[in-house]
Amino acid sequence: TTWYKFIFITQENFGCLEHLRQEVSCGDKCSHNYLQTIKEHLHSAKVSISLCIYHITLDSIFEELTDAHSRNIIVRIITDREMNYHSASITEKLKKLGIPVKVQPDTQSFMHHKFFLIDENTDDKEVWFGSLNLTAQAL
């Protein structure tokens, strides 16, 4: 079955930053609900998660990725070279847990993609893509 779910972040979501921290929702289009949807997709992985993202700082995403890793799900990350060393980035913590994190070798360019593949070599494969970094500011 093919299906699409759209997440539109608008100015209305700027008021939802506290909802992410407090884990409460103000309605269907709340950033908290959008984050829950992303986490549910990550949690549904049975074989692999391949994440290619410019910037990732959310602790709840860190928890989903480390949980998947502990369940023997293959977790792979590709990120931007600069964001890999950003103080709020979770990629260094993921590397310390044995999760592979790759960065582009070219210091003159940056990797700005935002997508992830779940169980990409199975019949239950999923793809998520867009312009959203996995940060509280983006949601």
Automatic annotation (TrEMBL):
<dbReference type="InterPro" id="IPR051406">
    <property type="entry name" value="PLD_domain"/>
</dbReference>
<keyword id="KW-0442">Lipid degradation</keyword>
<dbReference type="Pfam" id="PF13091">
    <property type="entry name" value="PLDc_2"/>
</dbReference>
<keyword id="KW-0443">Lipid metabolism</keyword>
<dbReference type="GO" id="GO:0016891">
    <property type="term" value="F:RNA endonuclease activity producing 5'-phosphomonoesters, hydrolytic mechanism"/>
</dbReference>
<dbReference type="InterPro" id="IPR001736">
    <property type="entry name" value="PLipase_D/transphosphatidylase"/>
</dbReference>
<comment type="similarity">
    <text>Belongs to the phospholipase D family. MitoPLD/Zucchini subfamily.</text>
</comment>
<dbReference type="GO" id="GO:0016042">
    <property type="term" value="P:lipid catabolic process"/>
</dbReference>
<keyword id="KW-0378">Hydrolase</keyword>
<feature type="domain" description="PLD phosphodiesterase">
    <location>
        <begin position="107"/>
        <end position="138"/>
    </location>
</feature>
<protein>
    <recommendedName>
        <fullName>Mitochondrial cardiolipin hydrolase</fullName>
    </recommendedName>
</protein>
<dbReference type="GO" id="GO:0005739">
    <property type="term" value="C:mitochondrion"/>
</dbReference>
<dbReference type="GO" id="GO:0034587">
    <property type="term" value="P:piRNA processing"/>
</dbReference>
<dbReference type="InterPro" id="IPR025202">
    <property type="entry name" value="PLD-like_dom"/>
</dbReference>
